[in-house]
Amino acid sequence: MLDSLFRKTLWFWVHTLGWFFGSLAALLLLRWFLLRLIRRRETDFARVAFDTLRWPSFFWSLAGALHIGLRFAELTDRQDKLLSTWVIGFLIVSLTLVAANVLVRLLVVYGSLRNMEFAISGLSRAMLHVFVYSFGLLVLLGYLGISITPALTALGVGGLAVALALQETLGNFFAGVLILVESPIRVGDFITLSSGEEGTVTDIGWRTTRVVMGTNNSIVIPNSKITSSILINYSLPAHMMVTPVDIFVAPTADLDVVTRLAQEAAAEAIEAGEGVLAEPAPAVMFDPGPLPTHFQLKLLVAVADRLQVTPVRSAVRLRLMKKFQAHDVPLPLGERLIGWP
After folding, report:
1. What's the whole-model pTM score?
2. Where in the sequence of the chain do the CATH 3.30.70.100 domains occur?
């Protein structure tokens, strides 16, 4: 009796493990072949698919081998149904996670290539995750035979209470959507806030917008503040901008000489690659002109973006100061020599 039971148990494990390891070897071989085929394709989608599927596909192979091994094992109908449910439920959950990861990474790659700020923002990634996870949850509940109608009714009733409790959070969320749709600012833009802080927009999230200052510190701003306050976007309509370099000279200075030296300083800065753009060409304006103690002019130079303004002004001022000293240009006594705005 015991010998027969031992033989039966041994045959059960040999039979089950044989199917399990055999199917696992076949599935791993198929996985290796498919991943190698994907890796050979030099496209963005292939690179994203390979990086995303490499480890999940291994666990899928394990789940598939376990399913096959248990299908040929002598289990009761209840045990077989329960194990099959767990395996398929695991596959649905893992496929949902992989689909969300692949779609988000493709969205970022495509958005970066097409300069689509909406695609590379944190809010769009969060919305895509919520959509894919919700779809996967509905598929899982449908497979398990769970009706979602009572859940939707409960969510409808409880949603009102949640909305009232999270008014500020929801306000920031919809403000983020408006920012992405209307695009007053975009990721990569250089902005100045009405409160004085300035920096480069690094992310537009579902609740806040992050700005990195020139000191490499981050400003976290609620999205509702962006939509309700006044700000300057130095990157719209283009990153290129014209910045003035103020020039102060004594009333006895020869303005023709001052204008020529200013033009020469700007031209030398262009040739030296110090950030001054050749187009539009630098220009000298007699603005505001005569003042009670001195004359004031402005040298207008173009720079690539707002971050270049300070180093460009510094370089042009140094060149201009040396030229004024070499040509004995009289400077106003007791006043600023080459002014700061």
Report:
1. 0.54
2. 241-326
